[in-house]
Structures are given as structure tokens and as C-alpha cells.
Q: What sequence folds into this?
């Protein structure tokens, strides 16, 4: 699966029309057939009446072709065409001519007063605007979209919910809110944004047979993680290897009351194959870590005596252990932002020059000390959730702006940003960006991020490059969540369960 912009999809249509070859109208027939078959297969046959709302571009032309095909399989169909001045595309006109001889109601709507009332049980097909949306909807188009949204009837959008830009955020403007969106051939960037989830509903990708070889000549703006990519990254463990070959990781994590974050990160790290793991935790957390994660070693904080107070027992501070022995370091889960911890973080940045993983309070410390950005070791992986990213990079009006900021920061400082979310976005120092396609809502719980930090640390330590670790780690993390929810249900998965299912995710990718 690929994700392409509206322009790229248009070019793919043209490429297929030229090289298959196939006429534009016949390609549209293929698209409409896919949609009709989906509707007939997936909607109960008792729901057999349709109101199809059409614009006058090719999305509307799809709607007209679907109307004809639904009529041919004995569905009751009424078509409503929103007049907005133009005569419509050639395909629109052709499909209208094909519809005219059939006993399908064709209604032209021009003003709010002419809008129909949709009877109960009738399915709404939204074919007003597709990938050709160029501006926020207003006037009659907006009023019609509001009418569709106000109706309790299920709405199925063709290609895009009308009003939604295909390539970028649309908020604060309005769009159709669909129960299902039947999109053609590939994903469009806007379909991966969490803020559009309510508009898109359940997204279904229809294979309309566009020629795959077009993809050899296109540079997607976004790429997707997935099984094939992860399989190309995973390296087997050599039979003759010993623990020394898989590196030694250091985790800086935990404070009083937040040792759980440290434990979760440590366990997840160990599940990703490092040879050794040491955890640098506050004095009061040592026995917790030793008991909860016997496979990890603990490094004692060496606070000098004059600094040592009870408070210093409760959070990280003092002197760092010698850092040269570690392949990588993960820093942040549960560490808090105590001044001693801030000082420790500054020393860490000044003294460790290999890529590391920064999350949670390490990111909050960074937000308050933005001058540290240029000093971060290149290719370090930063894993902010939306609020942490806002603290780092300021408020964003919408998700596209947030993603663009992450991509710019990644390039400017040669860092990898993982913007955590439903489809986490991975922004690479070289400019490329990936949406992650694994995971589900069972993971939307405290501690999931600590697990990811541990996993990324483990993979970096194990010898994967930072880009490989980010791509594999984020995908594996989502897969582990999927396996956990398959075993335990969506509500009951705990962050530790994600960790406990990393093994299944590895086995799935390697078998
Ligand atoms: N063979 C093919 O080509 C295939 C094409 N396919 C289908 O084509 C769709 C793309 O078609 P498209 O490019 O004609 O664009 P579409 O989304 O119908 O809208 C364009 C019209 O809307 C108008 N308009 C724009 N914004 C507006 C606004 N805010 N408010 C009001 N009006 C607005 C714009 O007018 P204008 O900007 O000129 O004023 C123009 O009239 C694609 O999504 C897929 O469904 C598939 O069947 C596969 C094969
Ligand atoms: K549409």
C-alpha cells in the first residue's frame, strides 16, 4: 500500500489511461463497479434505497455511474446533482446521458430550500467532491454537507468525504462525516490524520487496477511501515553469537512514584534483543527494579555526600556512570524535571555522542532548554506525544502543521522524530516521513510510550541503525499491541501486556 497526493493519483490515472490503455470513462466504470460491489456485499439487502449526492466533477461522475449500477441490481436510487454553474466534466456528462433513459430519479438542487429530506433507512452516497477539492466549502455546498451530516442515515463517501482536502488538514472547515469512505487504489495523506478520523469513518481501499509500474517513477511524500519493510530490516541472531555482540544499553528512568515507567521500559528493552541492559535509577528505585526485572543490572546513582539528601534518593541526579561502555542510552520514562535531573540530562548530552532515545520528561527538559537541541547526538530518536511535541515546537493549528514542524526539526537537527498517535509519524533526518500502520486503540493507555522507548533502545543497542530501529520499533510496538488485544480484548490490555507480546510480533515477522 502506498500513500499518494491528489496530484500523484491524478497522474497515476493518466498513466494507466495511456499505458494500459483504457479510456477515462472505462476506468471510472471500474471504480464505480468496485464501489457497487462493496455496497452490495457489505450493506444488508434490506437497506436497498439510495440517495446519491453528486457534484459536477469526476467524483460526481462516479456517483452517476454507481447510481446506474445500483439500479441494475434492483436498488431504488435517486440522484441529487448540486448545480454550481459549470456544465460538468466530460465523464460527468457521459454518465448523466447513460443514466437518463433509466427510471432513476434525477433531481437538480440549487438552493437550500430545494434540498431533499432523506427518509429513514435510505443510504446516502456522498459523491459531491473527491480529490479535486481546492478550497474550503461554502455556500450551497456547505449547506448540503451540513444537511447530510445532520441526517441520521448512514453516509458512504466516494474517494474522500466531500469538503476534506486530500493532502493536508482541513480543520477548522467542515466536511461530510461518513460512516465509510471507499477510496481508490491508495491512501491519501489526509486519510492518515487522526483529526480526520470522524470524517472518514471506516476506510476501505478499492483496487481499481491502476498500473503498478507507475510507482517506479513516483517519489511519495509519505511512506508506510508494514510487514515487508520490517522483514527487510530484521536480522537473524547468529548461532555463534554471544551476549557481547548485541551491545550493552543504559536506561535512565524512574523517580519516586514512577518506577513503573522504568520497569516497563526495561522489560520492553530486553524483549528486543540487547546483550546487556543496565538501568540508572534513583536510590529508592533500586530494589523495585531488581525485583521486577532481574535480567537487568542496576547502576547506583553516585550523588556526592554534600548533595545527598532524602530528596536526591527519589530522583535521578549526581554523577553519571562511565558512558563509554554503552552502545546506546534511553532516557526519560518517569524521570521528572527536578533540577538535579535537569543537570544530569545536560551532562548526558555533553558526554554521550552516539544516537540515543529521548522520551517523556527528557523531552520536557529539552522543551525548557531549547538551546540543547543543536547538541543532541545526531540521529537520536525523539518520541513525543502531541502535548510533548507542542511543548517542544509550539502550538500547531492542525496536524499537517505539526507534521511539517517535525519534518523540519528532524532535518535541521539531524534527528528522528516519532510523533506518537493512531498512525504514528516517523520523520527522518534525510527528509522522508513514514506513517505507521500497526496498532490499535487498546494501546491508548499510560505506559505504552515507556514500552516504545525501551524497545527503541533495545533495537539501537542490538545494532540496528537509528532509521531501522525507528521503523522496526514503531511497527513492532503496534503489532505487539494488536497481538495483546487479540488475546486480552481492547479494554484490558496493559502497557506491560504490549511488552509481553513483543515476542509474538517478532515471531510473526520472522516466520
Ligand atoms: N478517470 C478518472 O479520471 C478517474 C477519476 N476518479 C474520480 O475523480 C475524482 C477527482 O475528480 P476531479 O478531479 O474532477 O475532482 P472532484 O473531486 O470531482 O471535484 C472537482 C470539482 O469540484 C469543484 N470544487 C473544488 N473544490 C470545491 C469546493 N470547495 N466547493 C465547490 N466546488 C469545488 C471544482 O470546481 P472549480 O474548482 O473548477 O470551481 C470541480 O468542478 C476522484 O476523487 C475520483 O472520485 C475515479 O473515478 C478514478 C478514475
Ligand atoms: K466524495
A:
Amino acid at each position: 500500500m502506498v500513500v499518494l497526493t491528489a496530484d500523484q493519483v491524478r497522474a497515476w490515472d493518466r498513466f494507466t489511461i495511456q499505458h494500459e490503455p483504457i479510456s477515462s470513462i472505462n476506468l471510472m466504470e471500474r471504480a464505480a463497479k468496485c464501489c457497487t460491489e462493496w455496497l452490495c456485499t457489505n450493506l444488508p439487502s434490506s437497506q436497498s434505497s439510495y440517495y446519491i449526492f453528486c457534484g459536477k466533477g469526476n467524483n460526481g461522475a462516479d456517483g452517476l455511474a454507481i447510481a446506474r449500477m445500483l439500479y441494475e441490481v434492483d436498488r431504488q436510487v435517486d440522484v441529487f446533482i448540486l448545480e454550481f454553474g459549470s456544465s460538468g466534466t466530460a465523464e460527468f456528462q457521459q454518465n448523466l446521458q447513460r443514466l437518463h433513459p433509466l427510471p432513476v430519479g434525477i433531481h437538480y438542487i440549487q438552493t437550500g430550500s430545494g434540498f431533499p429530506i432523506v427518509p429513514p433507512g435510505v443510504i446516502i452516497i456522498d459523491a459531491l467532491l473527491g480529490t479535486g477539492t481546492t478550497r474550503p466549502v461554502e455556500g450551497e455546498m456547505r449547506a448540503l454537507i451540513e444537511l447530510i451530516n445532520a441526517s441520521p442515515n448512514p453516509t458512504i463517501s466516494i474517494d474522500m468525504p466531500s469538503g476534506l482536502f486530500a493532502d493536508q488538514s482541513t480543520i477548522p472547515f467542515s466536511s461530510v462525516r461518513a460512516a465509510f469512505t471507499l477510496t481508490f487504489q491508495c491512501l491519501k495523506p489526509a486519510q492518515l490524520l487522526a483529526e480526520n478520523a470522524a470524517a472518514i469513518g471506516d476506510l476501505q481501499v478499492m483496487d481499481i487496477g491502476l498500473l503498478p509500474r507507475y510507482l517506479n517513477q513516483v517519489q511519495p511524500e509519505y511512506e508506510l511501515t508494514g510487514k515487508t519493510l520490517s522483514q527487510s530490516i530484521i536480522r537473524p541472531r547468529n548461532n555463534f553469537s554471544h551476549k557481547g555482540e548485541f551491545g550493552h544499553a543504559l536506561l535512565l528512568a524512574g523517580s519516586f512514584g514512577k518506577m513503573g515507567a522504568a520497569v516497563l521500559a526495561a522489560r520492553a528493552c530486553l524483549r528486543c534483543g540487547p546483550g546487556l541492559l543496565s538501568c540508572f535509577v534513583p536510590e529508592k528505585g533500586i530494589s523495585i527494579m531488581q525485583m521486577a526485572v532481574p535480567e537487568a543490572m542496576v547502576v547506583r546513582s553516585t550523588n556526592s555526600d554534600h548533595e545527598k539528601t532524602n530528596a536526591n534518593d527519589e530522583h535521578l541526579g549526581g554523577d553519571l556512570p562511565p558512558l563509554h561502555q554503552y552502545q546506546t542510552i534511553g532516557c526519560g520514562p518517569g524521570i521528572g524535571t527536578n533540577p538535579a535531573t535537569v543537570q544530569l540530562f545536560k551532562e548526558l548530552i555533553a558526554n554521550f555522542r552516539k544516537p540515543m532515545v529521548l522520551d517523556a520528561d527528557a523531552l520536557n527538559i529539552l522543551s525548557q532548554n531549547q538551546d540543547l537541541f543543536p547538541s543532541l547526538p545526531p540521529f537520536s530518536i525523539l518520541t513525543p506525544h502531541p502535548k510533548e511535541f507542542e511543548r517542544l515546537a509550539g502550538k500547531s493549528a492542525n496536524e499537517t502543521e505539526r507534521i511539517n514542524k517535525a519534518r523540519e526539526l528532524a532535518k535541521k537537527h539531524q534527528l528522528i522524530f516519532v510523533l506518537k498517535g493512531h498512525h504514528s509519524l516517523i520523520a527522518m533526518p534525510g527528509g522522508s516521513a513514514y506513517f505507521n500502520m500497526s496498532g490499535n486503540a487498546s494501546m491508548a493507555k499510560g505506559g505504552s510510550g515507556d514500552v516504545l522507548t525501551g524497545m527503541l533502545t533495545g533495537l539501537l543497542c542490538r545494532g540496528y541503525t537509528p532509521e531501522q530501529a525507528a521503523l522496526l520499533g514503531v511497527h513492532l510496538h503496534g503489532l505487539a499491541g494488536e497481538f495483546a488485544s487479540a488475546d486480552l480484548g481492547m479494554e484490558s490490555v496493559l502497557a506491560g501486556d504490549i511488552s509481553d507480546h513483543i515476542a509474538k510480533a517478532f515471531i510473526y515477522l520472522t516466520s
Q: What stands out?
A: The chain has a mean pLDDT of 95. Residues 257 and 343 are 21 Å apart (CA to CA). The longest helix spans residues 466-488. The longest strand covers residues 76-82.
